[in-house]
Amino acid sequence: MGMFDWFSRRARPERAILGGLSRCQAVVEFGPDGVIRSANERFLAALGCRADAVLGMPHARFIQNDDEERLWRGVGRGEPMTGTFRAIGPGGQVAWLHGSYLPLSDGDSRVSSVMMYAVDVTSEHLRSLDLAQRLADAGRGQAVVEFSLDGMLLAANDAFLELMGYRSDELLGRHHSMFVDEAESRSDAYIAFWRRLRSGLHDAALYRRLGRNGRVVWLQATYNPVFDAHGRPVKIVKYAIAIDADAAHRPAPDLQDVMELGDHPDTLSMDAAIEAALAARQLQGGTPVAGGSE
């Protein structure tokens, strides 16, 4: 078999692979100077423009990067570069692209062109921003704390710190078990509680927790797994409101009382408030609601 036949056989599957990528991803070819040579329909659709609006234009005209010089210096050395980039079309349409820049070399090992293969992740990015905003809004009226999947404290807002009597630097990096009795932290129920959260299950109840110096704090709370773009849990966010210790000796609050517990800008916040009212009603008999020991 001659050399030409070897290259011909090798080229066919590679062309098929590249053709398949072009059908499902945004693909752009740049010269080594960063000027656009060609772009497929998916890239043009993401930017809301026609090919004649981008061909011959520099990379920086459309794709924003924190370090443009570093990007092209790297691909100029033949190094692939990967990341998520903000792209702006000629008409102002914004898209977020996650992809890779792959330098291609000629026979002299010099970079002759750079191919960008990217997935349009605009909708996922906007959902992430919306979730972040809703979490921030919910935190204004409640105690909010974030845990890793193994229970290590990652962040806490001022309301939580004040409620538990700690400074931020005293809590970050410590385990959730510091807020429960030692015997409870070793119990099967507590271990199962974190196993459920790690698996992506939500948990809501009235919980007995320990603040500074062992002070008992009753919290009506929701533990909410947060998921990545692939649906995998990545951390746990807890929203909580304090229940007074003498709640068992007061009349249970009605719906109006629930609405006055604080700001409730989203469904999770309202759920926590409603459950707080139900918990207080059940506490009249002196019996904590299910899950309260976890």
UniProtKB/TrEMBL annotation:
InterPro entries: Bact_Chemotaxis_MeTrfase, PAC, PAS, PAS-like_dom_sf, PAS_4, PAS_fold_3. Residues 144-174 form the PAS domain. Gene3D superfamilies: PAS domain. This is PAS domain-containing protein. It comes from Luteibacter anthropi.
